[in-house]
Amino acid sequence: MTDSLPELVDRVAERTLDRNMESEDWRKAVAINGLLVTGQKNCIDAAQRLVDRSIETQTSSGYLSYGSTDPVPASVLDPAEWPDYDSGQWQCNGATIGQSVLEFYDRTGTQRYLAAAERQYEALLDADRTADGGISYNSHVTELWVDSLYMVPPFVAQYGTITDDADAIDEAITHITVQANHLQDPHTGLFRHIWREQPNSFPESTFWSRGNGWAAAGIIDTISILPDDHPDREQLVDVFRDLCSGVVTKQDASGYWHNVLDDRQSPLETSGTLMFSYAFGTAVEMGLLDEDPYLDAAQRGLDVCKGIVDSEGNVQRIAMPPGGPGVGLGTASFGQGWFLLAADPLGKQK
């Protein structure tokens, strides 16, 4: 018999606390976000230590947690048509930690958190961009990656809200709308993985599950930060609803989603499933999606993922980076975090 959700949350959280995340950035950031939503003091204290260390290792350019300057090893660039990232700055990764940096500024009022967030924000302002203003995921190759919809807009919108900087809020909205213009398929509402500016192409064009999860979670988190009367809010709501209407139809009868949403031969995969459960549950709670069919889909997704937590608290069947088709399944810090994040809004619905 599967353990109760609170028991599983405790087990996953405890295992997350034991992980060595020193050299991680976005992976660690999701784990931190998950630890925070538990509300447990030991988890919050651990999250603060991880954030403090990310600030200690912030680069002179402003990128948190060592700066993500390492190239992607050739061994993971499969299939061969992926671009050659032999150098360059990963420009969006560190901003994912910026969300929790601002969270601890809000909790403590300590200025060093705001100063670190400001440095990370300024790094984004200095980043290489596409011609229409989207922040390129990498400085060596001008591309938009769907991943950055979670990494950049929630942090930038929150920074703008805290500092009363309307330009920062506009940056968050621009990042979403530019990505939607290039990556969101007008027929299905789903997002493709990577668009490359020159030549105008999709080096990785699949409807990758976690990629669409990044989009859904990042957009709903950004909407939750914007004032209800913001003039661009409804545009983001429309993008989000179009995405969700495409995603919900791809759910497998098991409750999982496949690693590639429209490829039933690709494996059933946990991280995307949890991200959709989180985004659907959060949006239903906000009144932006109808309970039918989204709350049921979210609950079935979380319920089936409860069975993938092992006795040590590892969340299994996570598609490993760099994502997309053909990658192996395993465990990862962000998988731990997404279980905790998905359990939060759906636990409240009980």
UniProtKB/TrEMBL annotation:
Pfam families: Glyco_hydro_88. InterPro entries: 6-hairpin_glycosidase_sf, 6hp_glycosidase-like_sf, Glyco_hydro_88, PolySaccharide_Degr_Enz. Keywords: Hydrolase. One of its GO terms (molecular function) is hydrolase activity. The keyword Transport does not apply. Gene3D superfamilies: 1.50.10.10. Transmembrane segments: none annotated. One of its GO terms (biological process) is carbohydrate metabolic process. It comes from the Archaea. PANTHER family: UNSATURATED RHAMNOGALACTURONAN HYDROLASE (EUROFUNG). This is Glycosyl hydrolase family 88.
